[in-house]
Amino acid sequence: DGLDWRNCSGNIRVTIAAERFETAPGDRFRAFGMLSAPTPATNPGGFDRAAHARADRCLCRLHLDSPACLIALDRGSTFLVQRAISRLQAACRAQLAATIVPEQLPLAEALLLGRREELDDSLRDAFLTTGTIHLLCVSGLHVGLLAAALGLLLLRMPGVRRHYRWILAAAAGAYVLLVGAQPPVIRAAIMLWVAMAAGAVGRKPLSANTWAVAGLIVLALNPADLFRTGTQLSFLCAACLAAAVGSVRRGPADQIIGDANFIGPRLVRHFAQWVVRSSQVNGRLWLLSAPLVLARFNILSLLPILLNLLLIPPAAAALCLGAAAMLLGGVPWVGPALGAAAGAMLALIEATVDAAARLPGGHWWLPGPAAWWLLGFYAAAACFWAWPGGFSRRRRFALLALWTIVGLGASWWTKPRDEVRCTIIAVGHGCSVLIESPDGRTMLYDAGGLSDPKSVARQIAGVLWHRGITHLDAIVLSHADSDHFNAVPELLRKFSVGIVYASPAMLGRDRIAWHSDPADGERTESALQSLMAALQAHRVPAQIIAAGDRLILSADGRAVMEVLHPPKRSALGDDNVNSLVAAATFDGRSLLLTGDLEKGGLLDLLAEEPRDCDVILAPHHGSRQPRLNDLLVWSSPEWVVVSDSRNRPTPGDRGPLGDVVGATTLHTSRSGAIEVRLRTDRVQVSPFLPAARSCSQPAAR
């Protein structure tokens, strides 16, 4: 508690800085590390890790710098159930590794066991953009396919045919334990058990009752699971399939196929009818799940309607062959043959998904619908399911179209605002500022961070989608440090960008790379090459700007960005010295953006006439440097904002930066994203996290 050690108990997530560390359930250790709380969402539209961890009853995390920080006290009992399950999982992974080629092994572990840690990021993105990510998340589909295959096999074995229901139920329970008892798998297993029990007593299971029983049991195990996207999609798809079984009727396409003698034998006609009816079911599944997927993942793809039909057969074959390889992998000739066949199916799946992901226009990154629209959509779907005869098909589509128009109209309609809204996004040790003009123009000043570029891009993209933004008129890059631009290539995949502006030192032909650390310099130059390649691939023009240039942010000219530094001929020094300093202004109110300005560049700026501003983004993430106090006096801000990280906080041994001029100091590491509204009569500064209160400064100063 800050004064004394206190005993406590509970769940904790432990991370160890090591490539591999062997342990098993039941082992007891003494650990020495850094204890912290899971981070909440720090940006609008961001992922709340604290709420997600709290749903697993995990309120703390412990980071260990090395395995040496763990001291083993004793090993768990050999007869512990969790330990036996862990050994079974390890044995299954070993059998897969022995029978399936290494190139397909990560996909095999993801498809069969739900282990996606070793899966390549590009392949995972391909599954996401094609709407087939559910194949990598062990769910009811996997349980259903394996149960169907095992049931067909058991029914053809005279000795066990009478007991196939019990064998099937036991196999489903074993698979649930093997893959970690995730809610979608539990839901599918419960529905299977209820169906088996009903069949054993000669009763026909009611789909609605079975679905409700599964929901009640999942709710009892962990109520928070019903509010997770995976669980919601699982129950939605199960309800849709239950409703579609009885509602898919013989239509015109079936009539043509059934009456056409030239199509061929009966098997071909049955296959054609299966394609037609499966397409109808797939269409309904897509229609029901697409709004939730769009709301949670901001992606809309039409590919799943057709792609699922193409992938279900090889996925079913890979599942069955892979499961057989895990059971019979030790049998000579049989195990390798099963593994080779499973690997071929996995290669087919990977090639199909990769080709589909490359199709132009196959998917769109979009802002998600509002919560009220989602609630209305699924309430209407529930009514259609509960009273199938109450609404004709034509009326259902009319109501759906009307509700979609209402949602689109609400998202497009924006109340006119007479202000410039600037959002200093919390990206950790990095920088990104979203600037929105009164007439809807948008601009980013920097987009990068020290952490993984894709993670930084997700944080920035979440803010943009939360604002309903799909197009950026411009991106302004302050300088060639990777923590200020490395997220741009990923953002170009998800947003259209009009133009990229940068300083002469970053994009000029006479660029000279100055790096005190060779490793950091190599990393920065590599990131810069990736940026230029991404700009060329997406056909985004790049233009050099320098001191004296003005970027117009609104049609009436009241909102502008004025470049103050560097001069057109770059100063001699590293990239920080040549940071692009700009002031976003609106009716005399301004936000000063300073990049990583330091040393000679800072002296050059201070040699100019003092520039009064309302808010300043502290240079170089608020690090203490010579003449920093002079910069604060030169700009006389009311607020000083520091874009920093919890892991690399700004030293505060000399007090907040703003104390020099009596300004309020805010840190993104503590306050989250910080919104600055530049208005004619006042400037309003609002931190995202509730720990810090919003404040405003009137025009009279």
Can you walk through the features of this model?
The chain is built from 22 helices and 25 strands. The protein is globular. Helix content is 45%, strand content 16%. By secondary structure, it is of the alpha/beta class. The strands form 6 sheets. A 9-stranded mixed sheet has the order 15-14-12-10-9-8-23-24-25. The chain starts with 10 loop residues before the first strand and ends with a strand. Helix 7 packs across helix 8. Among the domains are: 11-76, no CATH class; 372-412, no CATH class; 419-698, Metallo-beta-lactamase, Chain A. Strand 18 (581-586) and strand 19 (589-593) form a beta hairpin.
Defining key terms:
701 residues; alpha/beta; Metallo-beta-lactamase, Chain A; nine-stranded mixed beta sheet; globular
Work out the number of β strands. Answer: 25
Strand content: 15-25%
Specify the helix fraction band: 40-55%
Overall shape: it is globular
For the sheet with most strands, the description reads: 9 strands, mixed
Draw up the topology in text.
Elements: E1 11-16, E2 28-31, E3 34-36, H1 49-55, E4 58-64, E5 70-74, H2 81-99, H3 105-113, H4 121-129, H5 140-155, H6 164-178, H7 183-200, H8 207-221, H9 229-247, H10 252-259, H11 266-297, E6 299-301, H12 304-328, H13 334-357, E7 363-365, H14 371-386, H15 393-412, E8 419-424, E9 430-436, E10 442-449, H16 453-466, E11 471-472, E12 474-477, H17 488-494, E13 496-497, E14 500-502, H18 504-507, H19 518-537, E15 542-544, E16 550-552, E17 559-565, E18 581-586, E19 589-593, H20 599-606, E20 615-617, H21 628-635, E21 639-642, E22 664-667, H22 668-671, E23 674-679, E24 682-687, E25 695-698
Parallel strand pairs: 1-4, 10-12, 11-13, 12-14, 14-15, 19-20, 20-21, 21-22
Antiparallel strand pairs: 2-5, 3-4, 6-7, 8-9, 8-23, 9-10, 16-17, 17-18, 18-19, 23-24, 24-25
